[in-house]
Amino acid sequence: MTQQAAAAGSAKRYNPRLELYKGIWKRLRKNKSAVIGGGIVIFFILLAIFGPMLTGVDPNATDITNKNQPPSADHWFGTDNYGRDMFTRIIYGTKLTLIVGFLSVFIGGAVGVVFGIVSGYYGGWVDAVIMRIMDVLLAFPGILLALAIVSVLGGSLTNMIIAIGIFSVPAFARIVRGSALSVRKLEYIDAMKALGASDIRIIFKHILPNVTSPIIVQATLRIATAVLTASGLSFLGLGAQPPAPEWGAMLSAGRTYMHDAPHMVLIPGIMIVIVVLAFNIFGDGLRDALDPKMNK
Where do the TM regions start and end (predicted)? Predict the structure, then answer.
């Protein structure tokens, strides 16, 4: 009886989902570059949330007498052409950059996942119509498609988020469609249909949970693309409008003073590179960790 009770207790303590998460964390932790990338991502997220508390300076406060000053003890990252503190503007710009990245990917992911899962589940003419629309969107380079959308909607932070979200839709739709096509052929899906389960129930309760891994990986990698695209649009004057401390806009403003005040270009440029690189490295590591075929 004692052995049976111990065996029963051991069975109760075993949690397959918990073991799955432990395996993912173990594989991710072995990837040193992914850990570093994830650490940098977390650092910038914390900086966006708590960074403004580190400085009591208004990011838009001007001081013409101290314009184009190099980095110093008073101004760690120097000042811009209006005498505004670059360190403060970089901190506030972190929040703007991450908001654009996360919101645009959320919009693109939400729409793309719905299109992809419906296309993969139903197939036939539904699949053909949705995928042809995605092919049309994919025919345009991402930055050009976003540029065209923003040109129509007008230059603003909100319109930039919408534009990046729209051009992110095809990437999510194609990945989710491929995963849904493989999952819908499994026997338990046929069993659910035989039991009379509705399509909505099958799609959102049984297929969607099985395609979350590629969605998470794609979202992480897509944030890097969104940040880079947002910086490019703001650099062209079609994204965040002055005096918003967006990194691409700061880069654009600093190019005029590149020779006299190189820090105005170098610092926001380095920030963009670090964030994009961190999300890409972390996304690659996350893809390896979530791959069920990884068995070392």
Answer: 34-54, 96-124, 136-154, 160-176, 223-241, 261-283
Find out whether 86 and 247 touch, Cβ atoms under 8 Å.
no
Residue 295 confidence (pLDDT): 46
Nearest-angstrom CA–CA distance, 284 and 268: 25
pLDDT in tens, 70-99: 998 888 899 988 889 999 999 999 999 999
CA Rg value for the chain: 24
Cβ atoms 189, 183 nearer than 8 A? yes
CA distance linking residue 113 with residue 110, whole number of Å = 5
Each residue's pLDDT tens digit, 175-219: 889 888 888 777 877 787 777 778 788 888 878 887 888 888 899
3-state secondary structure the chain: CHHHHHHHHHHHHCCHHHHHHHHHHHHHHHCHHHHHHHHHHHHHHHHHHHHHHHCCCCCCCCCHHHCCCCCCCCCCCCECCCCCEHHHHHHHHHHHHHHHHHHHHHHHHHHHHHHHHHHHHHCHHHHHHHHHHHHHHHCCCHHHHHHHHHHHHCCCHHHHHHHHHHHHHHHHHHHHHHHHHHHCCCHHHHHHHHCCCCHHHHHHHHHHHHHHHHHHHHHHHHHHHHHHHHHHHHHCCCCCCCCCCCHHHHHHHHHHHCCCCCHHHHHHHHHHHHHHHHHHHHHHHHHHHHCCCCCC
Contact call for residues 234 and 226 (beta carbons, < 8 A):
no
